[in-house]
Amino acid sequence: MISYIIKILKGSWSLLVGMKVTLKYFLFEKAVTVRYPYEKRKVAPIWRGTLRQLCDDKGEEICDGCQICSRVCPVQCISMEVFKDPADNKRKTSSYTVDFGRCMYCGLCVESCPKKCLVHTTDYAFVSFDREGLVLGKDKLVKR
Amino acid sequence: MNVSYGLENIWLWFTALLEKLFGWFGLPYIFAYTIEKIIFAAALLAFISISVLFLIWMERKVSAHIQSRLGPMHVGGWHGWAQTIADMVKLLFKEDIIPAKADKWVHRIAPIVVFVPSLMAFLVIPFEKNLIGQDLNVGILLIFAFSSLAVLAIIMGGWASNNKYTLIGGIRSAAQMVSYEIPLVLSVLSVVMMVGSLKLNDIVEAQSRVWFVFSQPLAFMLYIIAGTAEVNRTPFDLPEAESEIVSGYNTEYSGLKYGFFMLSEFTNMLIVSLVAATVFMGGWLGPKWLPLPGIIWLLLKTYLIVFVLMWVRWTFPRLRVDRLMDFGWKILIPLAFINIFITGLFMVIFK
Amino acid sequence: MIDNKLKDKDGFETMYLNMGPQHPSTHGVLRLGLVLDGEVIVSAEPDIGYLHRGMEKLAEHRTYQANIAMSDRFDYVTSMNNNFVVALAIEKLLGVEIPKRAHYLRILMAELNRVVNHILLFGFFAMDLGATTALIFGFREREEVLDLFESVTGARLTYNYFRVGGVARDLPEDFIQKTGAFIKLMRKRIKDYDDLVTNNVIFRDRSVGIGKISKEDILAYSLSGPVMRASGIKYDIRKDDTYSVYKEFDFNIPTREDGDCFDRYLLRMLELRESLKIIEQVLVKLEPGEIMAKVPKVIKPPAGEAYIRTESPKGELSVYLVSDGTVNPYRFHLRAPSFINLQILQKILPGVKVADVIAILGSIDIVLGEVDR
């Protein structure tokens, strides 16, 4: 009988302790969430967002079409066509497309780029209404 | 008594006017009486709907702040006050689905059956001394009688949906309601013994010196626990245990019918809190030095209890079904009987 | 397939209940075929495969480095630990030695990920028992670690941080200080966890004595990880078959005796504290240095095979890797702890109640991404 009462009292006490915790959070703790479209949290500078190609100071593409990025990609989402420019006898890309519907943002392409011209942006909200919209060509990818 | 400040004066003045008006036209009193009651019922319905909308919003806000979140913030501007209205509008426009193999009529009727009794219970609650639907002399019994009808609708909904989860939910609900009705009524019984009347106004007036929370703390605790079980809230939300049986008895409901189940749930919570405020915390009585209308005191006390119920809900895990029965029969009911026994003993000694 | 006509012990008809694949708390797309006698389970059969992506086969068509990127997706809660085991296996094939700092960074990340897993378990297990707030609390602390991971790897879920021969990036400047702050915060939060959930009488009522697994069953079903240690078998691969540089660190292997849901939960809470201890030690030991060993650009391990086992937060996570000397592995096999721990369900579910099924499932801690692969 006494153990029965002690059990009830102990149980009630543990419940009260639990309620103390929630009351503490209710009264004193600030909300940790942000109201997304109005406030945005800053992502890390090395955030692996959508890909972009950099240009040099004169606005020329740095990429020389070495195809390492497309070969290292685990999901084969990078494709390019390469030609030799007769003007300066350099290898260049005539087309460079990334299918972001396939891309898994692993960052291996950026890491392997020998010219360091392929970079991640900090953009994390890349959306499209259809699958074609996720395939970006040179016009969108190259950042001048 | 601070009744002279109350909302009831307006109401009494209005009814007197109405009766006089009907008297001039030579119409019998019964017409005036009927119209009075209809107006009162309409006002009550408006009060209930607004309260329920507010309660849902409050529930979301309380849970959000307990969990370090913000809760609804957008709809309506200030802290998302219009969120529940938007949700209700959404529910109105949703497709009403009846499962192919459901028992169609029972499935349709269940949401109405669940909502009507919870409305009926408001009939006898005194918002102020004279601001009451009908001051019946079986007042408190009527409330319990009607609130126990809700289980019928839950079983109906659970059975008619022809889904195994809803069936389990409905049956669990039946078992739970049957076992928790008893401590609920027994806990109030000790108060009724002290007052000597089932009339809620008598119970309120008996507390003009000391609230029954202080003279009957055990009864109050038992009432709150059994009441939580009665309205299916955590830790007793087994009929709709989300993580076990999806959504329990209302799994197959959508649209307005689901809305009715949800409304009735919050209406029941309001009733349990109103009764607790009336029976244990002095109802419309307030301190003499602060002359506010009685209804404000009542609502303040009610919302205090509502807050406690929400606070409990967002703190505790859920009981298991057999432990629930154990708890009800082995702890609550014996305690309720002990409480009645002690109350009786004191009454005999100090009479 | 379960016999639908099973009778209960009194000879009455039973009810067949499909729990899942769409159910709020089967932790993904697990289907449990339950035969019920009222609320009591008569027999149960887990049905898996709804999330099958053929990863072991896919691995045969990917380069070794790409396989590490893919391993993020096995058990998406503990990506770092998956990275770890695949990287170790490839390095064993290649026979490279990785620099000290890389070792420490790997252990740091793996242990942080263990913390994430156990926090999530706290949340999910409490949620399975109906305590919603605990879930949000768990996720809140998880975000802190994810912020740390984000500052190192640039991603919040699929980190792809490990490389063959080291790790991808060095730590940012304020990482050590931030991690220290997190450990401090976490120790404070664990107290709240205990007050809110562990000591709660309803929680204990729901979990103590539920779903007991005996030592014999543990060995017979080859369960591993916290599930095994909760039944009283003191075995942790980090200590008993040590890999990387775990032997440099001082930590205990907590064990519990009963092997019920509560013990499995509590064991994780104890392990959480041990992991915090390891992280603290790593932070002290970290010294500047190389983070990558010299490995060829194109990884072509010599023909051969490697078997590496590690202690993932879910249990013994092992990889069997066969190389035929080309750039792709010849065979890639994963011993997924969730998958093997899941088998015990069929044995311990009969006789418990529907509500306990969820508790047991939650305490075994499965991730369907790893079960189905």
The structure class of chain B reads: mainly alpha
Which residues of chain B form runs of ≥5 with pLDDT under 50? Answer: none
How many beta-strand segments of chain C? 8
- Chain pair sharing the greatest interface: B-C, 29 and 30 residues
Q: How would you sum up the major sheet of chain C?
A: 3 strands, antiparallel
Can you tell me the number of structural domains of chain B? Answer: 1
Summarize the structure.
The complex is a heterotrimer of chains A (144), B (351) and C (373). With 144 residues, chain A is of the alpha+beta class. Chain A is built from 4 helices and 5 strands, in the order αβαββαββα.
What does this structure look like?
The complex is a heterotrimer of chains A (144), B (351) and C (373). With 144 residues, chain A is of the alpha+beta class. Chain A folds into 2 domains: 30 residues; 91 residues, 2-Layer Sandwich (Alpha-Beta Plaits). Chain A is 28% helix and 18% strand. The radius of gyration of chain A is 27 Å and the shape is elongated. Chain B is globular, with a radius of gyration of 21 Å. Chain C has 15 helices and 8 strands. In chain C, the strands form 3 sheets. Chain C has a 3-stranded antiparallel sheet with strand order 1-2-3. The interface between B and C is medium-sized, with 29 and 30 residues.
List keywords for this structure.
heterotrimer, A: 144 residues, alpha+beta, Alpha-Beta Plaits, 2 domains, three-stranded antiparallel sheet, two-stranded antiparallel ribbon, elongated, B: mainly alpha, 14 helices, 68% helix, 0% strand, globular
Task: List the SSEs and their pairings.
The complex is a heterotrimer of chains A (144), B (351) and C (373).
Chain A: H1 2-28, E1 51-53, H2 68-72, E2 78-85, E3 90-99, H3 108-112, E4 118-120, E5 135-136, H4 138-141
Chain B: H1 8-24, H2 29-66, H3 83-93, H4 104-120, H5 139-147, H6 150-160, H7 164-195, H8 200-205, H9 212-215, H10 217-230, H11 242-245, H12 255-280, H13 294-313, H14 321-350
Chain C: E1 15-19, E2 31-37, E3 40-47, H1 55-59, H2 64-71, H3 79-94, H4 100-128, H5 132-153, E4 162-163, E5 166-167, H6 175-198, H7 201-207, H8 215-220, H9 226-229, H10 237-240, H11 261-285, E6 304-312, E7 315-323, E8 329-335, H12 337-342, H13 345-348, H14 354-364, H15 368-372
Antiparallel strand pairs in C: 1-2, 2-3, 4-5, 6-7, 7-8
Helix pairs in contact in C: 2-3, 3-4, 4-5, 4-11, 4-14, 5-6, 6-11, 11-14
